[in-house]
## 1
Amino acid sequence: MMYLLRYAAPFVFDGHMNTKRSYGWIWKSLVAGLFGTIAHTLVVFLKVRAGWLPSFQPYQALQNTLSRLLSSEVPPIVPWMISYLNGMTIVGLLFGGSYRLLPGTYGITKGILVGILVWLIMGSLFFPLLGLGLFALNLGLGVKPALFSLAMVLTYSTVMGVVYAALNAKA
């Protein structure tokens, strides 16, 4: 984290070829991550209300895995808290800290690229760790969970990208 703060933080040019570190990106990253996480939550809420893929329950799978690892019952709120903490802080700060290095001109483009990367990591590493298999294929639902998780992650990342770009827009 200190590396990110010290070396990857965006620079501000003062017009005299001097640079100084700007730490405004930190609060902007947190706000963008929060908005992305709220959008993600709304998609999950819509999934539940509409009855889409009822056997695809990644938060419940995370809860079950944590309970097994801790040999103790983990309350259902814990996976949601982890999701908010991760989405708002860790991913938000990584996104904000690397924003100027990401390809693309617009926040939405950068958000989509990060979303695809996160989806690939989630489907190939995280889902198998939860016992769902590669891209949740072990559920026997074909590619539907993988496509829904892509939509879920892209909702998060594009909102985060748009909000971050808007917060950085020159007035």
## 2
Amino acid sequence: MKACDRAISVIEGRRPDRVPQFTPTMSCETASRLMGRETFAGSPSLWYHEALAWTRGEDAHADFDARIVDDAISWRRKLGDDVFMYPWRNTARPVAHPDPFTFVFGDPAGEHQVWRWDAETMNFVETVNTAQKPEPEDWPTRARETQRNMLTTLEQVREHTGRTEEDIQRRTGGDMLVVGSGAMLSMGVDEASLAAILLEPAAVADILDCQLEVGKCQLEAFARRNVRVIMGGGDMADKNGPIYSPGCFHDLLLPRLRRLVRHATDLGLHYVWRTDGRIWLVADMIFNDAGAPGYGETDRDAGMTVKAVREKFPKVVIWSNTSSDLLRRGNADGVYRDTMQILEESSGTGYFNGCSNTVLPGTPLENLAAMRKAADDYARCTST
């Protein structure tokens, strides 16, 4: 069975010849060790390398841009993945580069941001942002601006969404299922956004309506370009639970999510709600009321195990459940046992095997091999 067919069989509710592999993203450092050469993969480390490429000139950035897809295909093939997802990029060009690890974006004399590469943690973080801090009372103005810009936004979405994925599908020739990222719905998780939900709910609703229309337009563009799986959702939880209340989710997000999922289904698309964290308080709304067929970034460390999710939502497809932290800090034996437990919880159906989020810097390669070995051993055991 080809990789693409294997993945499609899972989202269509059929049992594949083996559980397909899916890795959402991987740090450049880990991918480079995997490949034995510098590899541009993903995570904030990719943003750092892109900023660095810009400082070396237009030609250097063009070379970087051309390498990203080649590298992404190469490390996924090396890992044995059945699914391809294009990495999340930050394409902004820095205006200053005062030292090897510091980059300035925006207007140095006015509104600007400073980002710094932390070589010890291998993370690229914003250290300065001179933009005025948003306040909840800004939300009505934000809503009006978003509404005014909708025609231009939708034109850009129709023109550009799915083009990269369409090209990668041609290049891989069915070697992997290529999924798209888009059709997100989010009320925000910062302090001002959470306050706006309570103080300016009408403006929040207006912005969500705009997100819904953009999301529907993205789904249509993906469908035209034969991209069948859409990684949507939006971060909204931590290990303790949802960051905003179930009541706010019900009143503001759920009505738009219902319409978005219905539109995806009508187009023949598989929509994946992605968020890490513990989401039990809103899970019934996401997977039963709205009917989202897929669940990504499924956070085992927060209690969202395949077993628990499968018991409550037996038809939901789970897109990876192995802990990033376990892969980074554990040993090969522990990763093997945990992966085998996850596969047994899945019964070999409705599940993509792999890390639920980013494969972090410093992750031992033997742990990645152990995760794949468990999948291969499970396939042999269940095929007899």
## 3
Amino acid sequence: MMDKSTGIRVVVCRLKGGLGNQMFQFAYGYARALRLNAELQLDLSYFDKDARHGGFAIERFELSDKAELIKLGFWSKTLVKLEEQVIGRVDRVRGIVHEERTLENRFFKYGSQLYLNGFWQNPSLFDVYTQQIKRAFRLKSFDYSSEFLNVKSEILHSQSVGVHFRRGDYVSDKNAASVHGVLGEAYYLKAVQKIEESIECPRYFVFSDDIKAAKKELDFLENAVFVDSVSDSMVADMHLMSLCKYNIIANSTYSWWSAWLNDNDMKMVVAPKQWFSNQEKNQQCKIIPSEWITV
């Protein structure tokens, strides 16, 4: 099928980074494909050279029968590089997108294909298709451990608050540390205060890539469960966080998605005002939905 007004038959979305980043990329690409009545292809070429975050991470979701996995051939990769180099001289594709190109979000048309290469961390770019995207991010069935099932039951039967404490590459990788910075005790104290102003008897479920550091930093939490990974999949932990009735997230796309996928009608999400270390970049950031609380 092809959108006659644009000539677009296929939307090709480049996946890169970790799980949360890939989810933003898929969500935006899927929304573009739905709007254009086009096919969707997920370009996995990036992971041939950089699989630091586990490579293609969203395969544990159902995704969509609309999505096809591909790897660009040599000449297509060359074309992508050339287009990126002359990105300032490439005309915008009429009717395709509403936001301007940036250094982080790039797109161009070649033939009947629209190629997307970016991070697209703005929910307004795909929120028209919220229900379709949530269906795409349903977990595939797998063998749940008894630990997973026990934690899930506790979450469903309490005033559960999912707390994400991010360390990992935010500490070990100088570039990630300089971009994001690390949230400390002060943020979590303010976030917990917001929760406890509105919620009676909250039970905190803490998820972290460094559970030892989380226990030390968040030792002020009462009625807390520090969840050691209940699966070999980050997707399973994200799913558990999304089942919590309320969320306190880190400056991390991973915990962002756990909160966005939370279907509790009365959910409360607390997020950090300071998403990036750089103040100018932080002011330009559009990742936080207006109904979430920032501290």
